[in-house]
Amino acid sequence: MSITLALMGNPNSGKTTLFNSLTGSRQHVGNYPGITVEKREGHLKIQDLDINVIDLPGTYSLTAYTQDELVARNFLIENQPDAVLTILDATNLERSLYLVVQIMELGSPALVALNMMDEVRRKGMTIDTARLSKVLDLPVMDLVARTGEGKERVLQEVYSAVKNKVERQPLRISYGHDLDEALDKMQEIIDEASFLGGRYPARWLGLKYLENDEEILSQGQSNPEVHARLQEIARQLAEHCRQTLNMEPESLIADYRYGFITSLLKEGIVTRSNQQARYDLTDKIDLVLTNRLAGPILMFAIVYLMFVLTFVLGDIPLGWVEDFFAWLGETTEAILPEGLFSSMISSGIIAGVGGVLSFTPLILIMFFFLSILEDSGYMARMAYMLDRVFRTFGLHGCSVMPFIISGGIPGGCAVPGIMATRTLRSPKEKIATILTAPFLNCGAKVPVFLLLSAAFFPDSGASVMFWVTLAGWIVAMLSAWLLRSTIIRGEATPFVMELPPYRLPTLKGLLLHTWERAWQYIRKAGTVILAVSVLLWAAMTFPQLPEEREDHYTNQEAVIEAQAWDNEEDKEFALLNLVNDKSQEELQYSLAGRIGTALEPISRLAGFDWRTNIALIGGFAAKEIVVSSLGTAYSLGEVDPDESGKLSDRLRNDPHWNVWVALSFMAFVLLYAPCFVAVVMIAKELNWKWATFSVIFNTVLAYIISVGIFQVGRII
Amino acid sequence: MTHTISLRSMRQDQSGTIYQVNAKGELGRRIRDMGLVPGTPITILGRAPLKDPVALRLRDFTLTLRNNEADYILVETEGGQE
User: Fold this and answer.
1) Strand duo B15-21 + B41-47: pairing
2) Interchain proximity A251–B28, CB inside 8 Å
3) Average pLDDT over residues A512-516
4) Which of A260, A415, A610, A675 has the lowest tally of Cβ within 10 angstroms?
5) Contact between A539 and A592 (Cβ < 8 Å)
6) Which residues of B touch A499 (CB under 8 A)?
7) Are A605 and A701 contained in the same domain?
8) ipTM above 0.85?
9) What is the reported pLDDT for A277?
């Protein structure tokens, strides 16, 4: 028998830890159709039950004003899971029960797991689980998800709940005389009309009308007559509440829900030892980590240390992977007969994909550190400390996370960064965050800066990276401010946020998170970048030189061979020059060369020649391609393509390049259009209009800044 | 003797009980969902390095909100503080 088990819970309740421990590697992350909320699914077997486990997004409530909440709520209603396991942070029972009560009002087949019972015991609290189970009339189990304590019992209860098919009636809470009366009236109307196909419990629908739930109100319009009657009742009640209590029905509902929870817990379910510490460990840590002076300094130090470590640790495996691909390319060239196919495999696919995959070790380490910050609870402190700054620029403390993931610390990626903005509730701050996050120093741009600093600023790679990263931040913030004070003006969104207790992340959780993100990156290399590498290779190879030019070079070669030379070296040199000229002409004749050349009059102002233009166009597909296509462009036109001198040396010795070109190029790569995948993501998260805007806005801005740098350099 | 003051004007370590939440719309809903409803005891834990947002303890967890959001929340406190 195959069933569906939904996991629900507050953010930081340990829901995902339990999910990981239940499903291990038998899980995958997808998206809900049409939106970018992550859908985590996994599998589990208890005796004869095949269980499909869905880890729903963490929420505090089931209102409809964040996508996460809407996804969770719609899943419960539309997919009718066979069991809904709600994971509670037992140290924080009241607020957690607020969600449970709402799930119960929906009549979902709920079970409750009281997680973090070890912390409860450590705090000197006791919770009478049996009694809680009785008053809630639900199975309630103790759990320590981190260690797996109590997991078997939870599974047993899920098993028997599913097997016994316990029918749950939607919970009825009394919301006071006035509201109850209105709810009864509404319930009658809804039942009679079988409103909205009877999919929702009638009283729950009534509540949503009283709460002015946008989603339900818009669905209700499908039956205008009933909709109008319900709205009229809601309107009258709201009027009445305002006059007699000076309160909105919405507030009353929340008050009564909390009141209901308080009355449940009154029966001595929770006891606390009276010598409970005034400050627990988290408070003590926060005294330092969010201290007015030490806090920001430590934050800066942590971020800096993180990326120094990433580069120190990542450098070694990076070399291995690079060597491997170099070896693979050479071997392929040696094995395959010389010709177009061999060239496509080695210069196109292996050079392109290999160049990208070499950065996997760096990305893995970076994501590992990011997961630590996230899972330990420190990320929330960063939002707390930086909110004031971010707000000045029209952003939100919660923009910190998308910014850091996008490359606020080099090595991020704007794709997951843009996805992370869904926790931002205000569309305006979300738009501003999404549009400016691609300015940051993502992992794909890192190789470009490494290459150029190796060529033009030898021995100062780390400080180049630091300044580039800082520049990314400054441009992102200033343009956010510009956008928020022009085309996306509007009020700031509330910063009502929980500071979760510090918790030691579990290794399993860290590894899973790291792998998940790294996999997204590797998959990008295997799909988009593979395709683009082949396309670019083709664009740089076709059309091939016309026959008369080929003949011209063959003739020239014959001329050189026939000439009488004083010594062999001069002859070799003449031949190499010829090969070089030919390669140059071939590249220039190709489609990519023509586009690059056509753009030269414009790009000259910023110091870019046609070969650089090719790399930049390729970089729109994925920024990683900038380095690989620079490599291809410069190795194709190289004096001796066999002698694989390092690209950085070639650039340094190229007459088109100097320090100012390098600076201008770095600025352009940092700021110009987000890569194709990120643009698609922006379109998914916002719409194509904003996606197009970001391509144009970023490119124009990048161009202006690059031209500025290059022209200043010329004068100096 | 009890005073009713706005949450913004509370000092570090000062405790009180929520008296009224005047916030409407989204802010109101967020505040209530997190359990800031009348009758809830709270304690101010501190403020961020730039003195905003403010962190407070309620119902066994730590909540942060901005000063201009705290303006909507009235708190009853003991003793003769300002």
Assistant:
1) antiparallel
2) yes
3) 83
4) A260
5) yes
6) 55, 61-64
7) yes
8) yes
9) 55
Contact at CB, A295 and B69, closer than 8 angstroms: no
The answer to whether the Cβ–Cβ distance between A290 and B32 falls below 8 Å is no
Q: What per-residue confidence (pLDDT) applies to A348?
A: 77
A91 contacts on B by Cβ (under 8 Å): 60-61
Is A408 inside a domain boundary? no
Report pLDDT for A165: 80
Q: Which residues of B touch A382 (CB under 8 A)?
A: none
pLDDT in tens, A252-289: 999 999 999 999 988 788 888 765 555 678 888 998 99
User: Which chain A residues touch B61 with a CB distance below 8 Å?
Assistant: 89, 91-92, 95, 498-501
Tens digit of pLDDT for each residue in A455-494? 888 877 778 888 999 999 999 999 999 999 999 888 887 8
Classify domain B2-78 at the CATH class level: mainly beta
Residues A631 and A554 both lie in one domain: no
Least CA distance to A295: which residue of chain B?
B49
8 Å CB contact between A138 and A105: no
Point out the residue among A282, A384, A501 whose CB comes nearest to the CB of B48: A384
Residues A552 and A533 placed together within one structural domain of the fold: no
Token duo for residue A568:
């062999």
Contacts of A13 (CB under 8 A, 6+ apart): A58, A87, A88, A89, A96, A115
Counted domains in chain A: 4
Contact A384 B64 (CB under 8 A): yes
Give A54's strand partners. Answer: A6, A41
**What residues does A401 pair with on adjacent strands?**
none
Place of tokens 């989204």: B26
What integer pLDDT is reported at residue A642 of this predicted model?
39
Residues A11 and A147 in one domain: yes
What pLDDT is attached to residue A664? 95
| Mean pLDDT along residues A224-228 | 93
Please list the residues that pair with A9 across neighbouring strands. Answer: A87
Determine contact: A248 vs chain B, CB below 8 A: yes
Whether residue A151 has pLDDT greater than 90: yes
Task: Give the number of other Cβ atoms within 10 Å of residue A696's Cβ.
Answer: 10
Is B21 close to A387, i.e. CB distance below 8 A? no
Q: Taking CB atoms and an 8 Å cut-off, how many pairs form between chains A and B?
A: 119
**Structural domain includes residue A655:** yes
Q: In this structure, how many other beta carbons lie within 10 angstroms of the beta carbon of residue A570?
A: 12
Please report, in angstroms and rounded to a whole number, the separation of the first and last CA atoms in chain B: 12
Pick from A209, A244, A272: which residue ends a domain? A272
Mean pLDDT check: name the lowest of A175-179, A449-453, A711-715, B50-54.
Answer: A449-453
For B38, which of A98, A255, A388 is closest by C-beta distance?
A255
